[in-house]
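Long-time lurker, first post. I've been practising inverse folding by hand and with some scripts of my own, and I keep getting stuck on stretches where the structure tokens seem ambiguous. Below is the full token string for one chain I'm working on. Before anyone asks, I'm not after the true native sequence, just a reasonable design that respects the backbone. If someone could post their per-position residues I'd love to compare against what I wrote down in my notebook.
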């Protein structure tokens, strides 16, 4: 076959990526839940007839990295030759998808002139799939995944472009908010259909042989570019370990150990030495482990490489069966979202030994709590899905980013959306002063959010971390401040466990406080004007500026006192500063 015309290849390649983005737009615009519509906790992708990933949208890495595995399971249940136009396959099995039941995957075959030419895929986090607690992400008291909600092995939920009513009735009967769940599932099918229409239009324009040739070339070039980028990393073995706080009240921390081996143009990420699987709602199935290992690798290599099947080929992920990062079914995993940040943090810190000018410090954690009860305005059940993001760890050349998702690519849901849809009042949402890890470049700042309950008895399911083990800094950078979850903040406040389930009453206030992020480089090297700016913005106090950064500030004139600063910084350098060196110690 003749070599593909480079202009045609570029147009088809970018068209495939744009199709994924349009699918995502359709999914968000037609979804019912705030998790998908506002937070964009979803993903879209395109596959060839063999199930190989050829393009994806810029959405949630955990979904995207696991989607090719999910499609493989779908096709084992429904071989490609048995599928017909208008079919749709749905699944959320914990071991077949992204590692917890709220993530549902939808796949649709694309036919052109009677021939299977591609698959479209979408995934979405559903705010409830039944189980022991509203939101289906409880950690405490969960011993197997059967307690976590509705488990869907691959099933046809659309045939001939029509919903299979029995499937939808079964789903509706097993979730707390059926309108939102069913609405989001149908929105996934909307996205898949749009993707199929756009693929067929592309084939009409260029012909099927050219289209297929472009897909092969896209995969080949992505693999070649990934391997070339990996070869730029020094060969060697790089290790790091950290700990998850725990898996519920009165439980031990979970060891997270990662060893990254670079050999030529290939990478092995080994989680041997990490803790065993737990009898709780937190375990990390291998598909999710792989997804975030890939995300971390992509973050350290050439970011311009379009992700497809070729990007997966140089990566090997190892985790012993029965371990925390490769549990045996039916180990539960509803709370597995909090694991993603720790995978990224550990791989980043391990690779800081090889790539000190690329790896970032530990990121802020997040709060993904849910509150469930009856809405007095409607008399119907509600599930309030709270998503509070902190920020990125400091980078080798820049500060960390405040108030933005790290490792998830989701958004903070607007206060107004919460208050309109749920019986809650958001009393405050603000940055926490002095929570960012100090450094030449400071980490992202922690965030506080206070939520007042405006209805009778409800249940709160907490889901957070970094309330015991700090987000570490690199190369002399300081750690971010720990997070906390406080009930009724004030003189008689009660500290809640980061993964506890609690009853709440009307008028109760929950104060979610997510950790800050780690700093990069010694604080005494920070530009005094940058410290002054942070003090004026309320992110750093004048006391921390003096005691940690060695910068004296006159807050009446908002100026840096140069002579006093010079003397302070001489003392700061002599006294040193705690923070991870970037060498795993």
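-- Answer (accepted) --
I ran through it position by position. Result:
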């Amino acid at each position: 076959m003749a070599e593909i015309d480079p202009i045609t290849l570029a147009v088809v390649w970018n068209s495939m990526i744009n199709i994924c983005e349009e699918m995502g737009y359709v999914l968000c615009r037609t979804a019912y839940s705030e998790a998908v519509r506002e937070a964009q906790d979803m993903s879209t992708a395109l596959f060839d007839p063999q199930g190989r990933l050829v393009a994806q949208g810029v959405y949630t890495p955990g979904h995207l990295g696991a989607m090719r595995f999910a499609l493989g399971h779908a096709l084992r249940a429904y071989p490609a030759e048995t599928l017909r136009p208008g079919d749709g396959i749905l699944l959320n099995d914990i071991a077949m998808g992204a590692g917890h039941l709220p993530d549902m995957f939808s796949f649709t075959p694309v036919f052109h002139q009677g021939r299977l030419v591609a698959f479209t895929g979408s995934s979405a986090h559903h705010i409830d799939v039944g189980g022991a607690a509203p939101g289906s992400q409880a950690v405490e008291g969960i011993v197997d995944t059967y307690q976590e909600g509705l488990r869907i092995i691959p099933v046809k939920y659309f045939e001939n472009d029509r919903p299979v009513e029995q499937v939808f009735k079964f789903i509706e009967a097993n979730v707390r908010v059926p309108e939102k769940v069913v609405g989001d599932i149908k929105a996934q099918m909307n996205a898949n259909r749009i993707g199929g229409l756009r693929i067929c239009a592309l084939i009409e324009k260029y012909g099927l042989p050219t289209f297929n040739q472009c897909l092969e070339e896209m995969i080949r070039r992505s693999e070649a570019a990934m391997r070339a980028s990996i070869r730029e990393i020094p060969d060697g073995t790089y290790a790091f370990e950290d700990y998850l706080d725990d898996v519920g009240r009165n439980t031990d921390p979970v060891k997270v150990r990662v060893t990254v081996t670079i050999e030529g143009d290939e990478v092995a990420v080994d989680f041997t030495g990490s803790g065993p699987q737990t009898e709780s709602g937190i375990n990390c199935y291998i598909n999710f482990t792989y997804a975030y290992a890939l995300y971390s690798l992509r973050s350290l290599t050439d970011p311009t490489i379009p992700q497809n099947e070729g990007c997966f080929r140089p990566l090997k992920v190892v985790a012993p069966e029965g371990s925390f990062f490769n549990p045996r079914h039916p180990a539960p995993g509803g709370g597995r979202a909090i694991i993603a940040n720790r995978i990224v943090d550990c791989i980043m810190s391990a690779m800081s030994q090889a790539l000190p000018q690329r790896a970032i410090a530990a990121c802020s954690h997040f709060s993904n709590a849910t509150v469930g009860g009856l809405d007095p305005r409607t008399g119907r059940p509600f599930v309030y899905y709270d998503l509070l993001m902190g920020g990125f760890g400091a980078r080798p050349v820049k500060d960390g980013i405040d108030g933005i998702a790290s490792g998830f690519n989701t958004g903070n849901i607007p206060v107004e959306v919460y208050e309109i849809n749920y019986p809650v009042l958001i009393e405050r949402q603000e940055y926490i002063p002095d929570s960012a890890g100090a450094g030449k470049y400071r980490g992202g700042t922690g965030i506080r959010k206070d939520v007042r309950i405006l209805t009778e008895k409800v249940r709160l399911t907490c889901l957070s971390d970094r309330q015991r083990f700090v987000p570490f800094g690199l190369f002399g950078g300081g750690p971010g401040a720990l997070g906390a979850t406080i009930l009724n903040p004030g003189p008689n406040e009660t500290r809640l466990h980061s993964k506890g389930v609690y009853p709440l009453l009307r008028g109760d206030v929950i104060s979610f406080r997510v950790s800050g992020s780690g700093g990069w480089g010694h604080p005494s090297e920070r530009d005094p004007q940058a410290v002054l700016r942070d003090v004026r913005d309320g992110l750093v106090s004048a006391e921390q500026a003096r005691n940690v950064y060695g910068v004296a500030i006159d807050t009446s004139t908002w100026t840096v006192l140069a002579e006093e600063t010079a003397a302070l910084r001489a003392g700061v350098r002599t006294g040193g500063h705690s923070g991870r060196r970037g060498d795993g110690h």
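A couple of notes from the structure itself: The radius of gyration is 24 Å. The longest helix spans residues 178-206. Happy to go over any region you disagree with.
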